[in-house]
């Protein structure tokens, strides 16, 4: 089928990630290549995009950034031609996602031995995670399909918390039924309440994420519910703007390293795709190195990395504090491997102790990290300690979600109640009687102990 021509005459379509022949419109319900069963990717008309010069693209993006000119104030839709040109203005479902800030972690960087350390705070968005970036594209395309008369009764996802929150919010905004499958008792209360509050059909299954994923794929394949997980390549097109935003925020300079937590691994390939798009258009002239950080208890990509990716086997993920990346059979592993090879990438892991302490240590410098960002920060510490990352390198750590989604993790850490974790950075509350003398003495004792 022919690709649908969209906004400004630009085109985009699905094609096989592995290179099998064939292309399909973005408005067709298809998730895998019919020939090899591999994942699809979204391909754009590169020659058409190159008819605009790099300097013209830069000027266009700058003019649109954070404006109220619908829909370009969004960090995703501000790059509409490079992301998804096939949705009409009235059918775009956007909540002003993206354009999240880069936090110069000056004090933390100096503690770790990196002078130029930044955190991309992707949790500073509508539902509190980077998943909003992909969901605005996917739900917008579904909205376009429904407006065109296609029969799509609902959208559905399996989730460890953040995907379900994003899907529920965007679907509610568009008036589209949403179904989310969560592993029972394996997501935080803050994550669980988001789809509930937004009216999604919320099912807590007595299994893990991989079990939820197996069921939601069957629902999509056999019952016509539209699949919203990252094996749907529309999600990747929105999430790829993270890398684009980073270089734009550095005035088109490329950092030496980007470290990103990895679970289902769609974010790894998305990060690489956005940077490669800019590279192919001449907007940047080099690529960073990418590091995927995994929790030791859910580390199939790390184990594959140890074999130089000769063996890529699913595992049974064990419970981890980094619950959103507790995934043993990541759908996007082949794409992630290809990305890491292209970016001279690394994979490293972090233990429960390491991730909890790294998150708390960073919080002491003004951040408020989710445990998954703790995984990335712990990996950063390891790579700096081994001399892989040098003091003068510019490093960006992707903070995937807001720490307020994981307050129980933080409370239990500072109360030294995390099983198997010694809280080296614990800062519990101090209970005192309401007596001036006792309070004054304790205040000065603590100042002297901590800063004297």
Task: Fill in the keyword field for this structure.
alpha/beta
Structural write-up:
40% of the residues lie in helices and 14% in strands. With 452 residues, the chain is of the alpha/beta class. It has a domain at 102-128 and 236-414: Rossmann fold. The strands form three sheets. It has a six-stranded mixed sheet, with helices on both faces. The longest helix is centred in the N-terminal third of the chain and has 17 residues, at 131-147. 50% of the residues are buried. The model has no long low-confidence stretch (mean pLDDT 96).
Mean pLDDT: 96
User: How many strands appear in the DSSP assignment?
Assistant: 13
Count of individual helical segments: 17
Determine Rg (CA atoms, Å): 22 Å
Shape: globular
> Which CATH top level class of the domain at 102-128 and 236-414 fits?
Alpha Beta
CATH architect. name of the domain at 102-128 and 236-414: 3-Layer(aba) Sandwich
Q: Biggest β-sheet, characterized? A: 6 strands, mixed
Strand content: 5-15%
Give the low-pLDDT segments.
none
SSE ordering: EEEHHHEHEHEHEHEHEHHEHEHHEHHEHH
Structural class: alpha/beta
Q: Termini, distance in Å?
A: 71 Å
> What strand line-up does the widest sheet have?
4-5-13-10-11-12
* CATH fold descriptor of the domain at 102-128 and 236-414: Rossmann fold
How helix-rich are the residues, as a percent range? 25-40%
Layout of helices and strands:
Blueprint: E1 12-16, E2 23-25, E3 40-44, H1 46-50, H2 54-64, H3 80-83, E4 102-104, H4 106-112, E5 116-121, H5 131-147, E6 155-158, H6 162-174, E7 178-183, H7 189-197, E8 201-205, H8 209-223, E9 226-227, H9 233-239, H10 241-249, E10 257-261, H11 266-280, E11 289-295, H12 300-306, H13 333-342, E12 346-350, H14 352-363, H15 371-385, E13 394-399, H16 407-414, H17 436-451
Parallel strand pairs: 5-13, 6-7, 6-9, 7-8, 10-11, 10-13, 11-12
Antiparallel strand pairs: 1-2, 1-3, 4-5
Helix pairs in contact: 5-6, 5-9, 6-7, 9-11, 10-11, 11-13, 14-15
């Amino acid at each position: 089928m022919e690709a649908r021509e969209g906004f400004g005459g630009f085109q985009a379509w699905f094609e096989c990630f592995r290179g099998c022949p064939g292309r399909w419109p973005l408005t067709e319900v298809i998730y895998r290549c019919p020939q090899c069963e591999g994942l699809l990717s979204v391909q754009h008309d590169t020659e058409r995009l190159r008819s605009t010069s790099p300097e013209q693209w830069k000027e266009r993006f700058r003019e649109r950034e954070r404006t109220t000119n619908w829909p370009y104030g969004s960090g995703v839709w501000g790059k509409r031609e490079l992301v998804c040109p096939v949705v009409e203005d009235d059918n775009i479902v956007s909540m002003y996602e993206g354009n999240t800030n880069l936090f110069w972690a000056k004090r933390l960087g100096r503690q770790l031995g990196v002078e130029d350390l930044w955190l991309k705070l992707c949790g500073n968005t509508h539902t509190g995670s980077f998943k909003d970036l992909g969901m605005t594209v996917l739900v917008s395309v579904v909205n376009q399909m429904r407006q065109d008369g296609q029969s799509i009764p609902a959208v559905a996802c399996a989730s460890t918390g953040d995907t379900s929150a994003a899907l529920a919010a965007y679907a509610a905004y568009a008036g589209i039924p949403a179904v989310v499958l969560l592993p029972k008792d394996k997501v935080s209360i803050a994550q669980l309440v988001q789809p509930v509050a937004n009216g999604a059909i919320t099912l807590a299954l007595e299994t893990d994420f991989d079990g939820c994923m197996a069921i939601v794929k069957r629902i999509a394949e056999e019952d016509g519910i539209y699949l919203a997980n990252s094996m749907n390549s529309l999600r990747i097109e929105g999430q790829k703007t993270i890398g684009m935003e980073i270089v734009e925020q550095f005035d088109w300079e490329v950092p030496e390293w980007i470290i990103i937590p990895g679970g289902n691994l769609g974010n790894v390939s998305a990060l690489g795709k956005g940077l490669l798009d800019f590279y192919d258009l001449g907007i940047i002239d080099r690529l960073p190195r990418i590091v995927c950080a995994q929790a030791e208890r859910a580390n199939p990509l790390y184990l594959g990395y140890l074999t130089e990716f000769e063996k890529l086997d699913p595992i049974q993920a064990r419970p981890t504090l980094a619950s959103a990346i507790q995934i043993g059979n990541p759908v996007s592993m082949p794409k992630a491997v290809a990305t890491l090879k292209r970016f001279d990438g690394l994979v490293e892991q972090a233990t429960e102790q390491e991730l909890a302490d790294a998150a708390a240590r960073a919080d002491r410098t003004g951040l408020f990290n989710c445990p998954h960002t703790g995984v990335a920060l712990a990996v950063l510490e390891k790579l700096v300690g081994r001399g892989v990352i040098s003091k003068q390198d510019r490093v960006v750590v992707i903070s995937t979600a807001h720490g307020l989604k994981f307050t129980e993790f933080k409370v239990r850490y500072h109360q030294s109640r995390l099983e198997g974790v010694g809280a080296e950075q614990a800062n519990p509350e101090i209970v005192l009687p309401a007596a001036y003398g006792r309070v004054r003495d304790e205040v000065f004792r603590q100042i002297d102990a901590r800063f004297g």
